[in-house]
Amino acid sequence: MKNAFKFVAVCALLTGFSTVYAQNGPVASPQNVLQLSASGTVEVQQDLLVLTLSATREASEAAAVQTQLQQALDAALAEARRAAQPQQMDVRTGAFGMYPRYGKDGKISGWQGRAELVLQGRDFLRITGTAAKIPSMSIAQIAFDLSREARAKVEGEAQAKAIEAFKARAAELARGFGFAGYTLREVAVNNNEMAPGPRPRMMAMEAKAASMVADAPVPVEAGKAQVVVNISGSVQLR
């Protein structure tokens, strides 16, 4: 009985499928569908400075290295917090780690550690001036970025450019293939940011030499970034 019931059910399913197929025919694959993409780009001045300070210490015992690094970091934090201001200069700790040093016999001969403090914000002079007042740490790296507010301000403009480029490209291709126009089928929008070149950086030794001059901020100048909106999708030619 069970086998007979399964057989009847399968027959009914096949019959239903045959009826639909007979009425509508096979499912036709899309025709005259065009895949394309376009992008819109807006160049904007980088408005965020990210300055990394670091301290390196060595000793025969790991505990001694940790204590020395903590003291250097505490002193740097105390100085930086006095000048901190939301968005203009935010202060945060960076990497903190210790690593063993090995002698010729393969045994641990000492320890080395590194601690980082990051100053980030829009007030370049405040950041570089504060870094120059921190003797317990030296400048390890300088980089520039784009704030969320600056990026959001131009994303709409870049998106509008991308949409217009997409529409113009679709209309041009439709005419090229002998069609009067097109209708939009699907579309995807992606945002990203590109720097026109490598971000300005300073090597640790160069920055250390510059920061040794008392109360002499390191000169910095931001470049420009490109906010790019990419649009890809498909259109139905008609």
Characterization of this structure:
By secondary structure, the chain is α+β, with helices and mostly antiparallel strands. The chain folds into two domains: about 90 residues, Translation Initiation Factor IF3; about 100 residues, Protein of unknown function (DUF541), domain 2 (Alpha-Beta Plaits, 2-Layer Sandwich), CATH 3.30.70.2970. The chain contains five helices and seven strands. The strands form two sheets. The protein has a four-stranded antiparallel beta sheet. Strands 1-7-6 form a three-stranded antiparallel beta sheet.
Choose one word for the global shape: elongated
Radius of gyration: 31 Å
Strand order of the largest sheet: 3-4-2-5
- Terminal-residue CA separation: 56 Å
User: Which class do the helix and strand fractions yield?
Assistant: alpha+beta
Q: Low-confidence runs (pLDDT<50, min 5 residues)? A: 4-18, 196-214
The number of distinct β-strands equals 7
Overall average pLDDT: 84
Could you tell me the CATH topology label of the largest domain. Answer: Alpha-Beta Plaits
Assign the CATH superfamily of the largest domain. Protein of unknown function (DUF541), domain 2
Largest sheet: 4 strands, antiparallel
CATH architecture assignment of the largest domain:
2-Layer Sandwich
Quaternary state of this entry equals single chain
Q: Count of DSSP helices?
A: 5
Order of helices and strands: HEEHEEHEHEHE
Helix content: 25-40%
Percent strand: 35-45%
